[in-house]
Amino acid sequence: MAMMKAVGLYRYLPISDPESLLDLEVERPRPQGRDLLVQIQAVSVNPVDTKIRAPKDRVESTPKILGFDAAGIVVETGPDCQWYKPGDEVFYAGSNVRQGTNAEYHLVDERIVGRKPKALSFAEAAALPLTSLTAWEALEDRLGFSLEPGANRGTPLLIIGAAGGVGSVATQLAKRAGFTVIGTASRPETKAWALQHGADHIIDHTRPFRPQLEALGFHDVDAILCLNATDKHWEQMADVIAPQGKICSIVETSTLLNLELLFGKSVTFAWELMFTRPRYQTADMARQRDILNRVADLVDAGEIQSTMTEHLSPINAENLRKAHAKLESGRTIGKIVLSGF
């Protein structure tokens, strides 16, 4: 029985507890069907990792391995694989119904895997999959906009939380597609980051939206991408969205939303969850492979930058606890990446 290193948990504990994430030795998995067995070179952390790990009254009998974003090398393929072979360098965001990427080897369905951008290191590539898929699906699949260059010339798009992981990619994609991008940020360093990645204007999401937008010359906006505190910003979004506009959010709510606020303007509201396709094995599941390959093309053409801002090594429980703690502070810019076992 071949074994491998991994980082996982048995109990759901505060990140300050040394047992919240543990260094483990677990059995190395074998690929079946359309699975790839990937030797993990780098991973990044996302808010979803901390939400899954958050304290709760549950104990796992076998260790739960977290992690979604990964870049690595295919070492073995299942019998039904069509697109990849051993030695291929790949990146992907995984599935929320399988074991995670915080391990030396990881199983992933080839339909949600893209080729690693040649221009990036494994660490730089690992920062991109989950956020790129979320941003692309939100803008194109949920809001219905084309992401071709200049396709939305002058269309005002408000991105709430423009300096975070998804915001950093969404801003780049939207700017390239011709939107007038209004990002929100509340600190000098996050404002600078959002402007650097393509925002045309910045407003402060801790202050009322309308006066700030009107000061910039906008009575309303055609589309809103909400990447932070949906319930907190709901009434303001309903206020500044244009008639027949569209809102997409990626952040679940702790309170019920009053959809009546959108009725008079015939506003469309959509959720975006990157895990929907792999979780439900949808007929169009391979769209995620297509999106990631498109992202890789744009990176290699110099049109999209990696959003890695911090790089830790090696991948172990201590460094993952540090990364989770930083994410939970709510003050992270871009993405934290870990590489090497």
UniProtKB/TrEMBL annotation:
Domain of life: Bacteria
MF GO annotations: oxidoreductase activity; zinc ion binding
Gene3D superfamilies membership: Medium-chain alcohol dehydrogenases, catalytic domain (3.90.180.10), NAD(P)-binding Rossmann-like Domain (3.40.50.720)
Species in which this protein is naturally found: Alicyclobacillus acidocaldarius subsp. acidocaldarius (strain ATCC 27009 / DSM 446 / BCRC 14685 / JCM 5260 / KCTC 1825 / NBRC 15652 / NCIMB 11725 / NRRL B-14509 / 104-IA) (Bacillus acidocaldarius)
TM helices/strands, residue ranges: none
Keyword Metal-binding annotated: yes
Family: Belongs to the zinc-containing alcohol dehydrogenase family. Quinone oxidoreductase subfamily.
Record SMART domains: PKS_ER (SM00829)
Metal-binding among keywords: yes
InterPro entries: ADH-like_N, ADH_Zn_typ-1, ER, GroES-like_sf, Lipid_raft_assoc_Zn_ADH, NAD(P)-bd_dom_sf
Protein name: Zinc-type alcohol dehydrogenase-like protein
Record keywords, A-Z: Metal-binding, Oxidoreductase, Zinc
Domain Enoyl reductase (ER): 16-338
